[in-house]
């Protein structure tokens, strides 16, 4: 496929965005930007007591991501491809979900100053999966503080993501149903994604693949 430029992989916790971003960066030999959740000293206490630590957690992420975007903007703009596992705009998704009205007003003031001239992606890949699938993946990867996450929080997060991307038009958008595919370990799934990426030049696109096992089953019973 042609040089895709600046690629962003997004989606709720547990959907596999970081793993896919790593593979895409390896495929294209590109610079990789990761959001670094483990570096946030407030995240563990947020999962224990969301109301008490929401503002600190959110501001740390905002400052961290803004610095990464600033470094990207000031870097070599002739870098062939860049891949990130976060969209700067998505910071507001979590802010709206976790902050109260007064906190959000303060957050918005900081956000507006930090996000001037943020580079726009050339393609956004939005991964979706049902909450029960996300919970299984979160439990499987075994990060202690994530296991304290309540399903209702994950439901609210997924709903907020859906609303956000329903109106998103800042870049070509590829919406992927990632519930029954493995984009990291299954080569055919990954190849299908690359084909979809090559076609996503503008506007909104949907990739809803049928799992290979179901296709094989259809052939057997056809």
Quick synopsis:
The chain has 222 residues and is α/β, with parallel strands linked by helices. 52% of the residues lie in helices and 12% in strands.
Describe what this molecule looks like in 3D.
The chain is globular. Strands 2-3-1-4-5-6 form a six-stranded parallel β-sheet, with helices on one face. It has one domain (6-221): P-loop containing nucleotide triphosphate hydrolases (Rossmann fold, 3-Layer(aba) Sandwich). 52% of the residues lie in helices and 12% in strands. Helix 3 (50-74) runs antiparallel to helix 4, helix 3 packs parallel to helix 5 (101-114) and helix 6 (131-141) crosses helix 7 (151-166). By secondary structure, it is of the alpha/beta class. The active site is at residue 85. Keywords: ATP-binding, Kinase, Nucleotide-binding, Transferase. One of its GO terms (cellular component) is cytoplasm. It holds the Pfam family dNK.
Task: Please write out the topology.
Layout: E1 6-10, H1 17-28, E2 31-33, H2 43-48, H3 50-74, E3 82-84, H4 91-98, H5 101-114, E4 123-128, H6 131-141, H7 151-166, E5 173-177, H8 187-199, E6 204-207, H9 212-221
Parallel strand pairs: 1-3, 1-4, 2-3, 4-5, 5-6
Helix pairs in contact: 3-4, 3-5, 6-7
